[in-house]
Amino acid sequence: MMGDRQKIPTHLVRFRPDEIEAEAKEGENLLNVAVTYGVHIDAACGGAGACGKCQVQVEGKVESVKSEFLPETGQKNRVLACRTIVKGPCTVVVPESTRVSGMLPGWGSAKHGVRHRQTGLDVESRLLDCGLKPLMEKIHVQVPPADQQPGITDRFRMFGALDKRLDNLDRSMDISLLNKMPKVLREQNGSVTVTLLRRQLQVPHLSQSLPTVNDIEAGDTSGEFYALAFDIGTTSVWAEWLDLNTGKALAAAADYNDQIRFGADVINRIIACKRGGGLESVQGAVVETMNRLIEQMAEKSGLSPSRISYVTAAGNTAMTHIMLGIDPEYIRMAPFVPAARFMPPVSARTIGLNLPPTALVFTLPLVSAWVGGDIVSGVLVSGINREEKMTLFLDMGTNAEVVLGNKEFLVSASCSAGPAFEGGGIYHGVRAMAGAVEDFHLNAPDATPMVLTIGQKKARGICGSGLINTIAGLSMAGVLLPNGKFVDDGSISRLHRKENEQEYVLVEAENSATGYDITLTSADVENLLRAKSAIYAGISTLLAEMDMKTTDIEQVLIAGSFGQSLNIDRAIMIGLLPDLPPERFRFIGNSSLMGARLVAQCVDGMGESDQVAQRMTYIDLGASPRFMDEYMAGMFLPHTDMNLFPSVARMQADQKGGRT
To answer: How far apart are CA 507 and CA 515, in angstroms?
Structure first.
């Protein structure tokens, strides 16, 4: 009987320092409790117990499984949240090293300690080339009153006024606007502003699905014409508030994608769509992030979101599906196809954005399951598709996308690099945040390190750029062998053996923010080798497919926030990037956001983005036997074939000469 069933007791869980009190059922997973109540804990593996990032300290009644990731001493009551269940009332302290910061470091600010290089792209000049022609236009007209044209409908009179300004205007409009129109026409004696889909928008999947009239407002509001541009990244979301009359960005904002709590990579996000709250929860997380950025930009600009006419958004294929509420499950299953490559626009309200009901969301087209609108956006804004120059375009992250080509052809691939470049899978790995080790130099006589951290704070871990710089430095100094193993001759005091692997102490416990040694382990080096080898093998495979050599590459464009802090010389030293002259490399910043902005402000850009997506050939590296050969060859520092890295070979020879 129902009444005989024992009710599961609930317990109070206090989270510090957020000062959040949660009610948890006995036996409930602690990480799930944190997610439910909005406590942001780093869980890169999505709660699988495989990354060790969700470490917290607990006082009270819990039951936890031991983990290899937990320090053996000095950290009383430390547990992995994902491997802990609530057994009674408890207090959970989320340490700084585990928290997902609410602000991204360095949106145009040097105070956060992130190196920002001047972008190689001038989006303002690119916009001038295209011209300021937004996807919509606002036209102010004076509609004659009904008593001056007896028997003529409101709709006919309004379009009659528009016909005096525009030729051959299509008269389609939505039923909701027909309902709104009579009152609006009479509010200010026929003075109205009509928002129209721009007639030059010759993109079949867009223009055929939209009525011409998008909105009707009383009075002259043509001077208040705004759009939002978004880059929907797996790790972070970036946004700009655009004035469509001037082409200027009035405000900008960025934050970590709230989906991080479902896992650091795309695969974990897709899996999360099938668990618990499912797609609705994962989709709601990114929309919550977008709404937060809209609020921040509204406050900065002093403008109201009610004046936004439309949104453009660029993201990878999975992020685009999830944002729109489309099930991404089959993206990760053979034969790996998206629901669609060209998504129709949707109402912003439909997906949960706090914008007017007439505001539409346009997304950049997709190429394949693993090459999305963010890459199309980057190619579009960089103009690769228009140039003679043979270009290699790289966007490096958990998934690294590679495009090779020029105005004659475009081929693309996606390399599963893993989360190492964002601190995932690294024993003391962290994202690029204050206190992350980002640079490394070695004192040659005794191999003691000098490290630099973001913001010059006490070290709390090592980020992706720090990992590259450290391994490059140790390799060139001979502390790391070409096979990625540490030397084992007992001559280096910072090298310790822990159980079955070696570790190099970057920062000793008394100098760290965490209270324990910040180390680089043998497993960390192996993870970096896998990541860099996957990217270099992807580049090599695309070149081979086109019967080209590395020397045929005339320029390398590096996109994304990770590229902003990448040291090219050291990336070449470890075999991540091809050995080319430094002047061929350009950092282009957040090309995904810039492309979304270009499309928002230039109707021709939307058509061109469709052409780019249609022209781009996707090479499935998983089906290429050559890729695995290239991958295995790249599992050395820098490579098994040193003829591909002549500058590194010369440096190594000079180093050996200096030591003899």
So the answer is: 10
Angstrom distance (rounded) from CA 322 to CA 320: 6
Name the nearest CA neighbour of 596 among 361, 430, 276, 255: 361
pLDDT of residue 250: 96
404, 406, 410, 416: CA torsion to nearest 10 = 20
Q: Mind listing the domains of the chain with CATH numbers?
A: 2-93 (3.10.20.30), 135-218 (3.10.20.880), 225-363 (3.30.420.480), 383-419+529-659 (3.30.420), 429-519 (no CATH)
Radius of gyration, alpha carbons of the chain: 27
Name which of 332, 362, 357 is nearest 344 in CA terms: 362
Alpha carbon distances (Å) from 406 to 109, 392, 582: 34, 9, 20
* Backbone φ and ψ of 237, nearest 5°: -125, 130
DSSP string, 224-290: --EEEEEEE-SSEEEEEEEETTT--EEEEEEEE-GGGGG-SSHHHHHHHTTSTTHHHHHHHHHHHHH
Whether 296 contacts 349, CB under 8 Å: no
b/e for 344-354, b at 16 or more Cβ within 10 A? ebbebeebbbb
DSSP of 8-53: PPEEEEEEETTTEEEEEETT-BHHHHHHHTT--B--TTSSSSSS--
Note the pTM of the prediction, 2 decimals.
0.84
3-state DSSP assignment of residue 326: coil
Residue type, 436: A
**3-state percent breakdown (helix, strand, coil) of the chain, nearest 5:** 35, 25, 40
pLDDT at 122: 61
What is the dihedral sign for C-alpha 643, 646, 652, 654?
positive
How far lies 85's CA from each of 71, 80, 100, 330, in Å? Answer: 20, 10, 21, 32
C-alpha closest to that of 514 among 8, 49, 58, 99: 99
What pLDDT sits at residue 203?
A: 61
| Strand 236-243 to 436-443 pairing | unpaired
From residue 128, alpha-carbon distances to 123, 199, 251, 605, 632 in Å are 9, 20, 20, 12, 46
Q: What single DSSP character describes residue 5?
A: S
Q: Are 85 and 30 in contact (CB under 8 A)?
A: yes
10-residue averages of pLDDT along the chain (660 residues): 62 90 90 78 68 86 85 73 93 80 41 34 66 92 92 94 88 91 96 88 62 93 97 94 95 93 88 88 96 97 97 97 97 93 94 97 96 97 94 88 97 89 88 87 74 86 93 93 89 84 92 90 95 96 96 94 84 97 92 95 92 96 93 96 95 70
Give every CB contact of residue 332 below 8 A, 6+ residues apart in sequence.
266, 267, 270, 369
